[in-house]
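Trying the structure run again after the queue cleared.
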Amino acid sequence: MIFVCLLLFASEDAKAARQLLDGSIVALGGEKRLSAPHALTGQSKGTLSLDAAQEIRNQFTVQGLDQMKWETQIGTGSIQLGLNKSSLWIASNNGRGNDAPKEMILAFRRGFAALRIAETLVDLRGKDWKLSCLGELKIDDTPAIGLKASRRGEPDLDLWFDAKTRLPLKVELRLQKPGESAEMTLSAVLRDYRKSGGRQFFGKMTVYHDGTKVLEVERSDVKVVDRLDDTTFDKP
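Done. Tokens:
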């Protein structure tokens, strides 16, 4: 009897999590728009805080969960960062790209995929994802409701949604530190949504590493464009 009760509880929990996901997909623009093949382009500006805070300006192109091209202006120089289906590369001042250290690649891929999942959500409808409820809390005084998304062989994703609008508010995951056995927590808080072409796009993003703010940007001119050729993300 206890086992049956546990199964019923798990079933109801998964159903509630699925309903939360479905409502959030509608809030972002609906499955048809979110799942159609496309890429996103845009610009952003803000502050990168590593050894010292630096003002940055970016141009970005992203596609799917594993393709990205991001050019950052820092001072008088520039850095290009690219992710494609086979590699992660870095180039300085429009020079030749170099492969990133191997120990960085898996953590970067997982972190990028988590952010992109939070931006589109439709991938979580896949049968390989298990969803459960996380309850309620406040994120910077905003009431939020959460779900946990789990998939074999991948880190769990904790996703939090604005309790009123159902728009994604925060995504968080734990990853192994590159080259170490210890873990780290990465999270991104997404705010200031703006509607364009029937879709909602977050306008501001704040990224935290183990609770410390490392990046804060405001996006502009975010556009949906036709799906791009994979060569767009090749190493220069």
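The helical segments are 2-28, 31-35, 102-120. Worth checking whether this holds up in the mutant runs.
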